Amino acid sequence: MSAPKQILVTHALPYANGPLHIGHLLGYIQTDVWVRAARMTGHTVHFIAADDAHGTPIMLAAEKAGTTPETFIEGIQAGHERDFRDFGIVHDCYYTTHSPENRELAELVYTRLREGGHIARRSIRQLYDPARRMFLPDRYVKGTCPKCGTPDQYGDNCEHCGATYSPTDLVDPRSVLSGATPELRDSEHYFFRLGDFTGLLKDWIGGGSTEGRPVMHPAVSAKLGEWLDADEGLRDWDISRDAPYFGFPIPDAPGKFFYVWLDAPIGYLASFKHYCASPAGAAAGLSAESFWRFMDAPASANPQSPIPNPGSTEMHHFLGKDIVNFHGLFWPAMLQGAGLRLPTALHVNGYLTVNGEKMSKSRGTFVMARTYLDAGLDADWLRYYFSTMLTAAPVDLDLDLKAFEERVNSHLVGKWVNLASRSAGFVHKFFDGRLAAELPESERAAYTSAAERLSACAALYDACDYAGAMRRIMEVADAANAYVAAKAPWLLAKDEGRRGELHVACTLALNYFRLLSIWLEPVVPGIAARAKAFLQDDWQRFAAAAEPALGTAIAPFSALTTRIDPKTLDAMIEASKDSLKPTPAAEATPSLFVAPSASTGSEASPPNAMGERQPASPNPQSPTTNPGLISIDDFAKLDLRIGTVTACEFVEGSDKLLRFELDAGELGTRQIFSGIRAAYAEPGKLVGRRVVFIANLAPRKMRFGVSEGMILSAGSGGADLFLLDVDEGAQAGMPVK
Hints:
Layout lengths: L5 E6 L10 H20 L2 E8 L4 H9 L4 H18 L6 E4 L3 H16 L3 E11 L4 E2 L5 E4 L8 E2 L16 E5 L7 E10 L5 H9 L11 H11 L8 E2 L1 E3 L13 E3 L1 H18 L1 H5 L4 H5 L20 E8 L3 H14 L7 E5 L2 E3 L14 H6 L4 H9 L9 E3 L1 H21 L2 H7 L10 H14 L2 H6 L3 H22 L1 H4 L6 H22 L4 H11 L30 H11 L7 H4 L44 H5 L3 E11 L7 E6 L5 E6 L15 E5 L5 E3 L2 E3 L2 E2 L1 E5 L2 E4 L14
Parallel strand pairs: 1-2, 1-13, 2-3, 13-14, 15-16
Antiparallel strand pairs: 4-5, 4-9, 6-7, 6-8, 9-10, 11-12, 17-18, 17-20, 18-19, 20-23, 21-22, 24-25
Helix pairs in contact: 2-3, 4-7, 5-6, 6-10, 12-13, 13-17, 13-19, 14-19, 15-19, 17-19, 19-20
């Protein structure tokens, strides 16, 4: 980075349907590291994000929880903000897309697109649920795959053969919401004429921004180029949804709402506008218009002539590769059509695997952000491990837990922190806790050489090549440790005649530690803050690394971080496992279909053929195929009973479980842990409900207590779960036959 700049930075907006997991954290950590590094370079950075709060899944999840969508998303946002804070991801403003600012700006963008001739209207045929009185997104329709005949497949693709299709192609389709057979009905929809901007998008994707830097990595531009070069060209994009829908109504279209992917990215603008109006933004003299040119743009911007950047501001988006088409095609075209400046750059990350495989609940590798922390693992450890692998390329990364342990223990503790721990004691014992006032020429030259080598890390951070920066930092750490080993201060301390040499050796070792701390701060801010307190220093810029600290006092050393105890990783894995996985005896029961699951809370679940948000993935433990016929004797093995809920609460330390107490009549009181937390955000409202449970399931000892049965529910998992209900008159303890 060169001259100081004003930079607006955003990351992909977490979808407000569940908690964050470590896969989400990959992109958020990448963003926060970049922001911290840019500020330490001397730039002014405004870090903005929000919860993506609209769409059918949220509307249905709130309904199931017995609350309003507004109340539902407030609780989710509070959890997201807590996780961000505890992982050191610090926003200047974290807001919501369900805001008056976002509604105002969504209407402004839409109106400008319409007046510019970029909105079309036409009738389409969709599947309609007559029971729920609503049109169904693809993922809310199931049926038999038209290609391979596999039953119980979603309306956009077959999980068995991989075929993609329209929901109208399904054989024997049914609504996931009601079970009713959907009807084909016509509905007028509104479309954004994306093809109007083909020329602009080709130039933007293939060239550099107005700030003179590549807009995106070549692999990303190549992928977007496949869309642009398709034979059919860029198709019109459906930006409307029919009521009922949780979102903003389209101003001139009664009963129609903006599709969530129209107003979600506008949430970047809205959140920044909200921040500009806040006391902090006002004190800084911020103006949203100075970044985005809100008010002075023509209503019909030229689709092929980029809107000029207002001043010397930059705008950077960080996002996962699963939503690159929205940010690389739809979003810049919307901005251009509305007369707003285009983004400076898109920084795209890949997916995360754990131990070389897709995250799995059964293996305990589908780890929630909170579960990681609750296991006693430091957030900075994960930030560092990710940074050792992150580059500008959108490649998938693997959280190899053994490599994670070894890298933290070796790099952060063995190479970095140990420089301080092995030197500080001598400084306090022999030199009143103060560093030497000067260094001999040879030591001074060695420090200068190391500082110059690490100065290249500023450009590496800017290019998102954190892996390159970490390699360079650890190379200097190796050299510093070699110096300490050669000087052997523990031996020098035994010779009173070599006190001066000891003072110099410890002073240079601690300055190497300080140098590494400065350049590691964007990655491990928590440990770096403790390093500052120990060194009694408060550097704010990378420039502080150019000169050593001499003659200054240091505090007594205390542990800045520790080695990873393998037991904490074991605890994390155990806490992440599907705790209600059936026992072997239960697995042998062919009629047991219900297995609880938890919402993944994906902020960017890939849209389906209609572009609609998808519900949480089905629990991998839940059978989705027909298990075959059984005899009445098989069914008789299950003791199904009615239970009345007398207590229901969240389980501390679990992101997916609710703890039930049931009045089971003659069977007494039963405690049951059920993995339906994602579907019922207010468990207290379940008190008094009558439920059906399996009374003769072998008790399962869990770390939260003993679970004495299984409560039955219907659905595919996550937020898509529904407790079974019974008619009036059924009493607690009654058998179900």
